[in-house]
Amino acid sequence: MKPMIINSTAEFLAVAQKHGLRLNAENVELNASGVDFLVAFATDEDGIPWVLRAPRRSDVIERAASENRVLDLLRKHLPVAVPEWRVNTEELIAYPRLAGTPAATIDPVAKNYDWYIDQQSPPVAFVDSLALAIAALHAIDHDAASEAGVRVLQPTEVRQSLAKKMD
After folding, report:
1. Helix (H, G, I), strand (E, B) or coil at 93
2. How far out from the chain centre does Cα 54 lie?
3. Quick count: other Cβ atoms within 10 Å of Cβ 40?
4. φ, ψ for residue 71, nearest 5 deg
5. DSSP-assigned beta bridge partners for residue 38
6. 163 φ, ψ to 5°?
7. Cβ(94)–Cβ(23) under 8 Å?
8. DSSP characters for 44-90?
9. For 37-84, how does the pLDDT look when each residue is reduced to its tens digit (9 = 90+)?
10. How far apart are CA 118 and CA 39, in angstroms?
11. Per-residue pLDDT tens over the stretch 108-141
């Protein structure tokens, strides 16, 4: 069955309600910058902010399933917040929005990043947390990562791939 392609705030609200989410209709913000998903940010009746993702095409659903397996793996190993999908269907992915402020977001009009930190001199807390996350990421067992769907490459394979790209 082909999933419903969501194109509007009203459609997001209807599909979210079908999956048990009661969102405030007044504060839904659409973000159309993604190629694979239309995204909406909304708050539910309890004041919890949510991220809603609707596939733009049916071919992205399989990749989303892989993404969810990887997120499950990362949640077990990383010292940072990782999204936990509460709704995961062919027509909607939804999860509580992570706390805090992102380092950057994409400006769909300028097709560039809007930085919320000084990118030339990032705060020490940002650098430290990024370093901890990268170290934890590299410490994940390769077999577990592979089972979750991550393509695991040996250092020689990475070097060969980069050399090929540079050529």
Report:
1. strand
2. 12
3. 25
4. -60, -40
5. 54
6. -60, -40
7. no
8. BTTS-EEEEEEESSTTHHHHHHHHHHHHHHHHHH-SS-----SEE-S
9. 989 999 999 999 999 999 998 889 888 999 999 999 999 999 999 999
10. 26
11. 788 889 999 999 999 999 999 999 999 999 999 9
DSSP 9-29: HHHHHHHHHHTT--B-GGG-E
Q: What is the pTM (predicted TM-score) of this model?
A: 0.84
Got the DSSP string for 104-129? EEEETTTTEEEESS-SSS--HHHHHH
**Residue labelled with tokens 């269907």:** 89
Query: Residue 37: which of 103, 76, 95 has the closest Cα?
Result: 95
DSSP-derived 3-state class of residue 5: coil
Residue recorded with tokens 């990782």: 82
Instruction: Reply yes or no on whether the pLDDT at 4 is more than 90.
Output: no
* Residues composing the chain: 167
Please give the span between the terminal C-alpha atoms of the chain, in angstroms, as a whole number: 43
Please identify which residue in the block is written with the tokens 């209807």.
14
